[in-house]
């Protein structure tokens, strides 16, 4: 007879070696835990950091902002000191980098290099402040119209159409001619008074789409107030298209300020502005073209930088561009 005790001991040893079907071996690798899903803003920042367009434009804008805030870092020459006797239309001296005579002198004997450096403050200040103002005004108007709808939407939409039908430059010219002193704040008010319509339309469309979302309906069902729904749930999700439009429009406001100053209706002396310098150099295009070309190039570079920045932000925030 076979030894039943030996067979039983052998089966016991095999069960001890083999793992139970309900147990998971400790040596198995379950793989990395799934990461937290990224939001639209984190995805946008991830794309922007790898965008050459964004990096180049951001560096150019940073340089212009530093130049506008701290012009003394780039030159110690005054943009208003004039010397007609010694510096009348003196040509650029390329042998002295970052010197007062690097870009030459204008018809009044003033350093063009110093005026280019100091002129960045007025142009960028107008662009940035106008953009902030029209973004706030347009967002509020668009949110109220899109959220409440009905007669409120009809009234605000018709008001927006009225302002939108006024030619931007012509309307700004009409407003500015009513002021005797055209300082920086006057130009900002004129441009902001007419420039909010596009952002209002974008904000209205975004709010109409977002207010039908499930989380907005749930917040309303739970008794959340109107202000909480608008500013806590709707506004953060509607900011992406608003930011895209605002960043692209910023360069346009800088160009508008230069255009108005060139026409003699925008900023006026003693304010230092690129548009004023372009206007003063237009009569010297034949014998001293650098007086006109240098401030014109600065306007073009600044506007191009903000347009490139806006395009990069649009590509990162718009899912259709991915």
UniProtKB/TrEMBL annotation:
Residues 120-310 form the ABC transmembrane type-1 domain. It is a multi-pass membrane protein. The chain crosses the membrane at residues 53-73, 124-148, 155-177, 183-203, 234-254, 290-313. Residues 1-21 are annotated as: Disordered. It is found in: Cell membrane. CDD domains: TM_PBP2. Keywords: Cell membrane, Membrane, Transmembrane, Transmembrane helix, Transport. Residues 1-16 have a biased composition (Basic and acidic residues). Pfam families: BPD_transp_1, OppC_N. InterPro entries: BP-dependent_transpt_permease, MetI-like, MetI-like_sf, OppC_N. Belongs to the binding-protein-dependent transport system permease family. This is ABC transporter permease.
